Fold this protein.
Amino acid sequence: AGLTGDAMNEYMDKLVDTNEDSGGVPDLKSFIHIHAGIDATGLPTEASADFPAQWAVIRNWDGPEGVEDPRNIVLCSMPSLIDPSLAPEGKHVLHAYVPATEPYEWWEGMDRNSEEYKQKKEEAADFLWS
């Protein structure tokens, strides 16, 4: 039998409890993903050693936290190089993300409907494209 009512509410509250003093999970670092369809003109149609289906872009290997410095690494994959049916002819699918390197504190307490939050998301997305 599944949980219902108060038991379910208590269980769900524990899942999102970030208070370490009460046994909760601490806030984790933030990450951002972009999933995009792009024009494949000039790009290979299959993965190779010169153009793999997955790669990393690292701006600085020698930062204080190494590759885990905030906004320092972007992991990318282009699965349509492996399975062309994932994108229309002449297009590719691109997935790029920053792997949990931004301190949660940078985002903590922000109203997700605020201009400040929207601007911060734009800055984070811009890092992925640059």
